[in-house]
User: Fold WYL domain-containing protein from Sphingomonas ursincola.
Amino acid sequence: MSVDALLTKRVRRHAPTGFSPQIDADDSRPTLAPSEEYSGWCFFVLYTNAQGIPSKRRLTLKSIEGYGHAQVIKAYCHERQQLRAFRIDRIRELVSLSTGELLSPALYFEECRSFGRITTGDKALFDFLKVLVFLAECDDEFHPLEREAIEAALTSYILRFGGSEETIPKLLQTIENLAPDGADFIASLARLAKHPEARSVGRLLENAMAAVVSSDGTVTSDEHEWLVAAIEAVRDLQS
Assistant:
């Protein structure tokens, strides 16, 4: 096999021969309708709760959440007949009900999050937004060009770290209701310093802060001081 062929080869994990996910025989709850059971977002999982008790579930995935990476899924549990949250690190087994494929929970859900294949909620992106809004409003004005710079920064974050672009309009709608103060600013920076890719986020944030402050064509002495202080804070928190 050539080197090029090796580089493009992808290995796909399959369920063991004859494997068929089974739900407890004494489960009297109604089964899924065929059209729902075998949709692309339906899974069989073996889940262990906080007390270490395992359970078998049939889930329909609704969204993926976390801080910079996939940590929790929101899914409709057909055994409990309600929407519930499940920690990905507690999923011991994950099988697609549409293909029977045995999947790695951490890798699969992170891939879905990164490529925006389903609704995602990245709390780090909201902290990223609050830092930029704080700088945009530190001169007591919020120029339309500053809003455009913030939108461009959010887009860059998603392109670099993954997520769904459909979340950007929703975040922009919250700007009018945001009034982050210095404490919020520092708290958001502290959380971003714990991002799985903190250094890369820090570099992107530095560029985004400079773009927001200079976007309206003028940089006041106050804005310059805040920008310098903000960049120093980013670097201090990452050191």
The chain has two domains: 14-118, 122-238.
